[in-house]
Amino acid sequence: MLTLAPDVRQAWLDRIRWIRIVDRLAENERIEPHERRFSRFMEDWRRLLSRGIVDPSCPFASELLAIRALWLRDASGPGSDLAEGRRGGDDMAARSLAAWDAYLLALADYHAPGLLIRTMKEHDTMLLRLSGHIFQLVPFLTKEHWDAAAEFGRLDQFFNNLRDMQEDADRGICYLPEEELARHGLTRAQVLSGRCIDTPGYRSLMQLWLDEIMPSLYARAAPFIDAHDLHPSLQMMKEWSLRRYARITRVFRATGFDPRRFPARYWAEVRRDLAERRQLCRAQPA
Q1: Which domain of life does this protein belong to (predicted)?
Q2: Domain residue extents for the chain
Q3: 173-196 residue pLDDT tens
Q4: Residue ranges in the chain modelled with pLDDT below 70
Q5: pLDDT score at 83
Q6: Terminal CA-to-CA distance of the chain, rounded, Å?
Q7: Topology of 114-286 in CATH?
Q8: Nearest Cα to 102, choosing from 125, 82, 121, 118?
Q9: Do residues 75 and 85 make contact, with C-beta atoms less than 8 angstroms apart?
Q10: pLDDT digits (tens, 9 = 90+) for 163-174
């Protein structure tokens, strides 16, 4: 990120900040629903989307104003028909706006208490609605790579869920679909408690996950992975992500699919890799 031109770096930092804000608000509302932080953000967002208005007293007025300037720039002012403005305006701005709105709706759905993923189809949809939409929000994406970016995002969410399996279980969240758990003789309660780890059914499920589901997601993401005409910052993001996926896979296999052992080893590898990269950068001539 530090090697990017200042304007390119700022574009990435803005999108990352917006995504982190709403992620944090949605997680906070799951833990403390009475605070309604995410719900209040959504009320402010709906007001902006329908009327072009940002309440200057809302906590995230600056972010909403930045979003309006970037994706709603065809709106003529408060009360304007934003939908009509988008139809006549920049297509990528309209696409990004729709992806952002869809991502907010996905956050509301997948942070709801008692979340239950029943089928593989629901699981596949969840992957797309979360990170699929995030990857359509990245700066410098073109129409040619729009659908491919969503598939790469679907792959990204698969690895996020794998990496965070223990953290999610500690919060009472299980993204593994009920039908696959049942097919392998497992229950959601066993996953959340960790009692599944030493069972043959869990091992066979994880082998399916890494040997069949993961390759199928890589295949769907291939158009983005194989693209050579991406913006340099997108190419950098893609290469970094692929290294991250390989690291998650390697550590998950090395720890015997045990999400309890995974975090310590994984984050130790992350710190080591970052230290090696910093050392390599220092060694390169200016």
Answers
A1: Bacteria
A2: 1-111, 114-286
A3: 999 999 999 999 999 999 999 999
A4: 1-2, 73-89, 281-286
A5: 44
A6: 17
A7: Farnesyl Diphosphate Synthase (1.10.600)
A8: 125
A9: yes
A10: 999 999 999 999
